[in-house]
Amino acid sequence: MARPAADQYVSKLRKPDDFDDFWDDVMDRASGIPLNPEVVHDPLRSSDDVDVYTVHYDSIDSVRISGWYSVPRGRSGPLPGILHVPGYIMEPPILKSWSKKGYAAFSAAPRGKLRSNGQFNPGYPGLLTHRIVDRNTYGYRGFYVDACRAVDFLEGRDEVDPARIGVTGHSQGGGLAITTTALRPQVRAATSGAPYLCDFMGSIELTDSGPYHEIRDYLRMHPDQRRAVEETLAYFDGVNFAHRITCPIIVSVGLQDSTCPPETGYAMFRNISSTDKRIYGYDGHGHDANQHEHAAVIDEFFRKHLAP
Q: What separation in angstroms does the CA of 233 have from each of 32, 140, 141, 198?
């Protein structure tokens, strides 16, 4: 039997009654941790038009997080800020192209990524199932907080206008764009490409590709833990975070994506509370979600809402 159209998919996921209380408590705990940012100019990676800095800051569980920060040289504030959150296996890039467009751009490296893996390093594969049977120890708990505190870093910069901060990412970055925007209401605009971390349990039925196969493999080895896994993942699912998003947002999916099934992107999108939202479904495209052409859509979206 053929699968129904992606935009007709209905997720079976249920939001825990204490979902918002759980995350409000996590974020309250995180807010009590001083950021202690360290910003060091990197002359090797800087250029005539962009200054690049290495950044470190503190996050939950006493983990020190790194990132790349770039600003247009010769431009005084206030600048709009862009946070880029990374894919599952990718390492955070230096965002000089964004700074050349007039943005103060931060590329976050949440725990486990290069330069942020000294205290936490479950590996890839590994992160998706790290301590997956307990919401209080699951690896993505800290990972989500790390991304949120990158917004705090941008807010604290003198050259950044805190009223003009956006978040963008693709794949895992697309999922993190959803969770970060949901947990940081000061984000004014967001884009999410091929969002991962949406309808985890539905995804393992829709695709046998990685990284979701990590959950399938885990359950094959630990079938008795299925209920605990489902209960944990419900607290980390983008479908359940989406209702907290009220700012302008665009989402893109590849209709032939076998990594992050487009059905789950549509399920998440329907739950977004913002009245200024749009989803782009690209036929003939897989996990790339037509990034080559969609990049211009993202540029125009941020120009409209952040006005560099």
A: 25, 10, 10, 10
Element (H, E) at 233: helix 226-233
The CA distance from 116 to 67, in Å, is 9
Q: What is the DSSP annotation of 78-129?
A: -EEEEEEE--SSPPPPP-HHHHHTT-EEEEEE-TTSTTS-SS----TTTGGG
Segments forming the whole domain that contains residue 243: 6-306
Instruction: Please give the helix or strand (H or E) that residue 269 lies within, else none.
Output: helix 262-271
d(CA 252, CA 269): 10
pTM equals: 0.96
Is there a domain that residue 36 lies in? yes
Give a yes or no: residue 47 inside a domain: yes
Closest CA to 119 of 72, 177, 59: 59
pLDDT at 1: 44
Q: Which residues are catalytic?
A: 171, 257, 285
Question: What are the tens digits of pLDDT across the range 40-59?
Answer: 999 999 999 999 999 999 99
1 within a domain of the structure (yes/no): no
Residue 220 neighbours by CB distance under 10 Å: 9
Q: Please name the helix (run of DSSP H) or strand (run of DSSP E) that holds residue 249, with its range, or none.
A: strand 249-254
| Residue 97: inside a domain | yes
Domain tally, the chain = 1
Instruction: Determine contact, residues 282/212, Cβ cutoff 8 Å.
Output: no
Please state the rounded mean pLDDT for residues 100-116.
88
CATH number of 171's domain: 3.40.50.1820
Which residue in the block uniquely carries the two structure tokens 């974020």?
27
- For Cα atoms 251, 255, 256, give the angle at the middle one, nearest 5 degrees: 135
172-183 helix and 139-155 helix, angle to the nearest 10 degrees: 70
Q: With contact defined as beta carbons under 8 Å apart, do 115 and 68 qualify?
A: no
